[in-house]
Specification:
- The complex is a heterodimer of chains A (about 400) and B (about 260).
- Chain A has two domains: about 30-60 and about 95-210, Rossmann fold; about 65-95 and about 215-395, Rossmann fold.
- Helix content of chain A is about 40%, strand content about 15%.
- Chain A has helices at about 30-45, 50-60, 70-80, 95-110, 125-135, 145-150, 150-160, 175-190, 205-215, 215-230, 245-250, 280-285, 320-330, 340-355, 360-365, 390-395, and strands at about 15-20, 20, 70, 80-85, 115-120, 140-145, 165-170, 195, 235-240, 260-270, 285-290, 290-295, 330-340, 380.
- Chain A is globular, with a radius of gyration of 19 Å.
- The termini of chain A are far apart.
- With about 260 residues, chain B is an alpha/beta fold.
- Chain B has helices spanning about 5-10, 30-40, 60-70, 75-85, 100-105, 110-120, 130-145, 160-170, 190-200, 215-225, 235-240, 245-255; strands spanning about 15-25, 45-50, 95-100, 125, 150, 150-155, 175, 210, 230.
- In chain B, helix 2 links the parallel strand 1 (about 15-25) and strand 2.
- The two termini of chain B are about 30 Å apart.
- The chains are: A alpha/beta (about 400), B alpha/beta (about 260).
């Protein structure tokens, strides 16, 4: 029980690895909780009653399925056919709630009464605080002190929803440190607490569990494309990658379809050679952080370095092990998008389609002009979140050609 | 069969072990070896040298801070091995290197074991190394280089896993006293005593040392009633952090525990 055997080389294997990446590198104090999860997650989420509750809430509460929108003006501009998967229209404004809803239902079945989470931009924190309010569970969100200052609206939302927001004061006081603090909290409260990790990172089974909860994105894309275009598979799927949960969800059902090109946009910051970047596949090498072996930005001595991105949600020194594997096997292509390219792309989508994307999402949009398409190609972009939270950054940004 | 200062210590020494954790390169870069010497003079039995890491998730504030200071001081594994060259001329205590796995991976796993053996360290504690990886890749190196590998056991670790850890260990078992990060708890509660008793009744082949939350004479002596020794980390780091006279502070600290 609790194990998966799959023929796909892109799915997690029974030992918790994706190729060379993954595993569960955790101190013994976390082992019993993570092991309990590993033994039970597949059984719980495949249970009919679980699925019934999950699917109903995704439909009635989150607002799924999200539209697959043909972006005509953007398509004309790029001389191809572009669809936007509108995850920004989910309740709470991003894909994050697909995962938090799945995990809180799972936490209830594990008998847990308290929830902890980490957050960077605050989207995962808000999505966690939301489902905790929905289920009447206590919620503590760790957030870097620096991020608390730059994402104030989301901090206020979490508080409004009844969550306690605890500033992470250690290290660089950003997402990586918030994750450290959440893990420390879990070590100190192993009995009644479930840790809802927000991305496809962390020890096995988290990357696989989060990918499964997010896989609804690509499942819907397949159905919607079939209806709209008469074929299930697009030619390209584009998504941004911080830890990589929206990308994992958007890629999931296309992993074993070699005709579908998978494109990941990483945060290049001020440029990959500037020393102010979060382009993990360019700047990182194999290492271990937050419980898994992956590609990691680090010094020669193995100390984790501080990434930089204008988007707090991509400001992470690693990527999920599934993405490290997709990179390593060249199943996915990775592009490093600079702060400036992302901001321009965000502005462009606002003006051309009337959709203000999250700055994270704008990184995926910025890949568009870097690629060559045929006019008949089908390009799907995962529009992972909306940009309301980023208005201050958008408005104060010194655009070169606005 | 691993035979080094650590395994011999537990065979030959009748009294419970006082094991002290210090962070390499803390409070200043070149304090590492002088601290070992002072600990030996003061009467400590075993030393764990912490290799600092940027993201020590099992550690509380005190050890986090010492890690950060040590990294700012420029401590690296390479520097630590340079500092430990020839330290055996003065220090005969069993010494273990303790740290998170990532810096070791970057140093090179075999190269790390080779150099640890070369400077005559006796063992390693790598708290976030999975047991399966240890068996596959690290155990053969421990045997080749005659190094003990020590694993942690927590109050939630089940009996099957404890037996497995005992089987794989030649050195001692590190009993984490409660569900916590380092430096968190003070004193030993009834619940913990039940846990120590439960482990003692398992009659493991390895000696046990109790760590996490051991901070003073009372907790040290209580822990020693249930195990072959106890480990002090955060309290020691606090005692030396602001010290103007390290040998004196260390002597005072160790004597205060006996």
């Amino acid at each position: 029980m609790g194990r998966t055997t799959t023929l796909s080389q892109f799915q997690v294997q029974t030992d918790g690895y994706y190729g060379k990446f993954g595993g569960a590198y955790i101190p013994e104090m976390l082992f019993p909780n993570v092991e309990e999860l590993r033994q039970q997650y597949l059984q719980i989420i495949s249970d009919a009653a679980f699925q019934a509750e999950f699917q109903q809430l995704l439909h009635d509460y989150v607002g799924r399925p999200t539209p697959l929108y043909f972006a005509k003006r953007l398509s004309d501009l790029n001389n191809t056919r572009i669809y936007l998967k509108r995850e920004d229209l989910n309740h709470t404004g991003a894909h994050k709630i697909n995962n938090t809803l799945g995990q809180i239902l799972l936490a209830k079945r594990l008998g847990k009464s308290k929830i902890i989470a980490e957050t960077g931009a605050g989207q995962h924190g808000v999505a966690t605080a939301t489902v905790c309010a929905l289920m009447g569970m206590e919620c503590i969100v760790y957030m870097g002190k620096v991020d608390i200052e730059r994402q104030k609206p989301n901090v206020e939302r979490m508080k409004m929803l009844g969550a306690q927001v605890v500033p992470a004061l250690s290290g660089s006081q950003t997402l990586k440190d918030a994750t450290n603090e959440a893990m420390r909290h879990w070590i100190n409260h192993p009995h009644d607490t479930h840790y809802i990790i927000g991305s496809v990172v962390g020890p096995h089974p988290y990357p696989d569990m989060v990918a499964r909860f997010q896989s609804v994105i690509s499942e819907e894309i397949k159905h919607q494309l079939l209806t709209k275009e008469g074929r299930e598979n697009p030619d390209y799927v584009l998504a941004c990658v911080g830890g990589g949960s929206n990308a994992a969800g958007a890629f999931y059902h296309f992993l074993d379809e070699p005709s579908v090109q998978l494109i990941a946009a990483e945060a290049g910051g001020l440029g990959v050679n500037s020393g102010k970047s979060a382009a993990t596949t360019v700047l990182g090498k194999t290492g271990v952080l937050h419980g898994s072996k992956t590609i990691l930005m680090q010094t020669e001595d193995g100390q984790v370095v501080e990434p930089h991105s204008i988007s707090a949600g991509l400001d992470y020194p690693g990527i999920g092990p599934i993405h490290a594997h997709l990179y390593d096997t060249q199943r996915a292509q990775f592009y490093a998008i600079t702060d400036d390219e992302a901001m321009q792309a965000g502005l462009l989508l606002s003006r051309m389609e009337g959709i203000i994307p999250a700055i994270e999402t704008a990184h995926a949009l910025a890949v568009l002009p870097k690629m060559q398409y045929k006019p008949e190609d089908l390009v799907v972009i995962c529009l992972s979140g909306r940009g309301d939270k980023d208005l201050a950054t958008y408005m104060s940004y010194p655009y070169e050609s606005a | 069969m691993i035979d080094n200062r650590l395994t011999r210590f537990f065979k030959q020494t009748p009294h419970p072990a006082l094991t002290v954790y210090c962070t390499a390169g803390f409070p200043t870069l070149h304090d590492t070896v002088p601290i070992l010497e002072s600990l030996q003079t003061a009467g400590a039995d075993i030393v764990e040298i912490g290799m600092p890491f940027s993201d020590p998730i099992a550690d509380g504030e005190v050890i986090q801070q010492s890690n950060q200071v040590a990294l700012q001081n420029g401590m690296t594994i390479k520097t630590l091995f340079e500092q430990l060259q020839g330290f055996r001329q003065k220090v005969h205590l069993p010494v273990l290197l303790m740290g998170y796995i990532n810096p070791v991976l970057q140093y090179g796993i075999e190269r790390f074991f080779e150099h640890a053996a070369e400077v005559e360290v006796d063992g390693v504690i790598l708290p976030d190394l999975p047991l399966a990886e240890y068996e596959r890749e690290y155990l053969p190196l421990c045997r080749k280089y005659n190094l003990s590998a020590v694993f942690l056991v927590s109050p939630q670790t089940d009996e099957t896993r404890i037996r497995k850890i005992d089987d794989l260990t030649e050195g001692f078992i590190y009993l984490v006293s409660s569900s916590s990060t380092t430096g968190k708890t003070q004193g030993i509660q009834a619940e913990q005593i039940n846990y120590f008793e439960r482990i003692r009744q398992m009659q493991l082949k390895n000696p046990k040392q109790i760590g996490f939350g051991i901070a003073d004479k009372a907790s040290f002596q209580t822990a020693c009633q249930y195990a072959e020794g106890a480990i002090i980390g955060s309290a020691f780091i606090k005692a030396i952090a602001q010290s103007a006279d390290l040998p004196a502070s260390i002597r005072q600290f160790v004597q205060g525990l006996r």
